[in-house]
User: What shape does this take?
Amino acid sequence: MAAPCRRVVSRPVIQFLSSFSRTAVGKTGFRQFSSSSACRVTLQTQDVMERATSPYSLVAAVCLQRLPVISADYKPIEQQFRDMMLQMELEKSVLSDHELRLLEDAERLRRKLADDYDSDEEGSHDDQEIVLAQDLEDSWEQKLKTFQPAPRVRDDLDKNLNSVERCLADSLVLLAEQQVGGEKIWLLPQTQWQEGETLRQTAERALASLPDAFPPTAAGFKATFLGNAPCGVYKYKLPKAARTENSVGTKVFFFKAILSDSSPSTAPNKSIMWLKKSELERYLKPAYFMKVNRFILNL
Assistant: This one.
């Protein structure tokens, strides 16, 4: 540390501090200065000045994820494990109430055929209609035939990148088309930091700055932020045509959020996209994608 300090602090200053430490003032309880402490103070002052005059602007971006709505299809090994667990559960289980009722009905029918059945034993009457368990099963089967489950794969919506309802079995990430310099590129929703607010507040304002995706009414998307600290940072330079002496580039701080509620949009919005993690690389810049890919979980 001695050599760098001598380059930062000139020799006359060091000599002055050395002579000052030998005076009577140093004996009255004042802390003596050294060349290393002066170097440290000088470096800290320079660091503060560099941050104050930094040509990079601050931006907060939001990685908004829509979690899977339905479970994913089983892989072959997962299906085999599921079948094995169901078989083990069946072998170790006891009879249910419905199964016991089926056995009772079968025994009652056998006794009727053998003329060994007395309805008074069970507190019933001859003119009372008895609903058998098998009749219940038949009625349930009829209801099951009329039930139409929602399709898991919907080609019309799954191919629509602007719909939040696509690919229900996958996790999706929101991208927004934004103006950077003289071109429009796809990025995570972001906005410029304003003095007096935290980066978390800037990230929340980034979502509110998308009027088409987040209408001013309460029926828009509702996001839950995962903490107040950013999960990543990315620094880039602006195009040469957009650079100025005081603005060379931007430092982007990423925050993670989960889509907690949404309402169906009335019209398609071409300025936003909901993409799977495997689809992000086709729309994001390579360096930007490398930073984003680190903290996006493919749930």
User: Anything to note?
Assistant: The chain has a mean pLDDT of 76. Residues 78 and 84 are 10 Å apart (CA to CA). The radius of gyration is 35 Å.
